[in-house]
Every structure is written in structure tokens, then in C-alpha cells.
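=== Given protein ===
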Amino acid sequence: MTTPNGVLTGAPSVVRPERRGTVWPTLRAIYIIWYRDILRFWRDRMRLLGSLAQPLLFLVVFGTGLSSALQGAGGGFGGGAGGGVSLSYTQFIFPGIIGMSILFSAIFGAMSIVWDREFGFLKEVLVAPIDRSAVAIGKALGGATQAMVQGVILLVLAPVVGVKLTVTSVVLVILLSFLLAFSLSSLGVLIASRMKSMQGFQVVMNFLMMPIFFLSGSLFPLQGLPDWMTFLTRVDPASYGMDPLRRVMLDGAGLPAAALDTMSLTIGGTVLPIWLEALILLAFGVVMLALAVRNFRVRD
């Protein structure tokens, strides 16, 4: 560009519109969505009590009945593996019952996505100037927190069923419970991101939850099973949460390590370390959440 006198000047500056970052608004949206779910959960006391009824029913009726039958038949868990210490069936399934509470609460927690879609709240969030990943992440963390709390509440029954816990084991149980809850909540969010009706979501969840629960090893050891059932238990993500929960909680029951190994999840005859099971759970949850984020981003 030149002046009337022929003097060359610099190129005209281009005024670009200011680009506002979306990182902080997205993080704030994740917190708000998480807090909203926690607040709704805390205010709905009947929902909390109702979610604890089924695990207690399994523990008291199912656990007591089968425990009596096994004792009458001279059976037990852990006996004969050195030391002669055995568990009652109620003690054996107690970690599985906690896992069951986490499983049902985490997956059904994603139902709020379908509910919000039907009532228009989700549409308002999706058109907000935030990354749509905030919806999936906030819902997954909210569902995981609710499920973890419901599972941890059941720890108060540990002395009643004869399971001894230490401070270390309680901390580990809380961490493992959150990992299990996060992976299953992410699965629920992924499925809910494709559902358009509450009825459709409930049908799919009821179809998935019972196989996931029964094949997770909550009610029976994961060793000595038929080959086809062994395969199904190893591809069940909940197995990698139920097994470390049981091993941590029953570590103080006086069972020798060999006895715990006979009830633990193995692959190729090798007992998986707890840290590896936790890593598998985390990886599964991250993958499910990433797919859920993708579904929300490509949604109209």
C-alpha cells in the first residue's frame, strides 16, 4: 500500500474476531452437570433407600439360605487350602453384593440423560457455548459418584457378616468402587447417548445388566467353570471390579494367599494382580466415555 506521495507503507492489518476459549466454560459445565446429579440424588431419599433394598435382599435371603445349605452339606470357601480357615457363603458374596449395588446404580444413573432429552433440558445444554463432551463427562462422573456412595454405605454391614476391614482396605475399596462405578457409568452414558425413549433404554439395560451381574463372579468363584462360561466371565468388564473388591475385603478374613487365589480371576492359569485389574477397568471406562463423547458431538 502506498501513500499519495508514493511512499510504501506496511500491509493493512487484518482485524480478526476474538476467539474465546471454551476450556474453562466446559470444565464449569462438567462440574454443574455433576453437581446437579448429586443434588438430585441427595434430595431423593426414597431412591437411595430403594437402591439399597435389592442388595440387602440378596445378602439376607439369598446369602443366608445358600450359606445354610452349604454348611449342611459340609461345604465352604477357602478351607483345605492350607490353614483350614473357611468362609461362609454370606461372607463370600458380601463384596459381590456391594459390586451389585454399584453396577445397578451406575448403569441406571445414565437414565437421567434420556429423561433430560425428553423434557428439553439436554437440548438447552447442547446448544450452549461449551464442548458437548461436558455432558458425557459430567453424567459419567455424576453416576460414578452416586454408585460409589451407595456401595460404600453397605460397608457398615461388614461386621454383621463377619468381614474384618482395616483403614487400608476401606481406602482401597473406595478407590476400586469408584473405578468400577466409573467404567459402568460410562457404559450407561454411551448407551443412553443413542436412546430416544425411556422405554427403549430400560429394555436395553435390563437385557445387559443381568448377564453382566451374574457373569461377574459376584455369586460364585471364577475358577473351575466350563470353557464357554470362563470366556464370558473374562470378557465381562464387571469381573475386573468384583474380583479385586473381594480380594481386598477378604484379605483380613484369615485366609491364606493360596485360598484367595483359588477364588480369584485368572487368565491362562495366572492370577491377575489387583493393579492390572484396576488398569483394565480404567481403560474400559475411558474407551466407553470416549465413544459417548463422540456420539454427543456428532448428534444433531
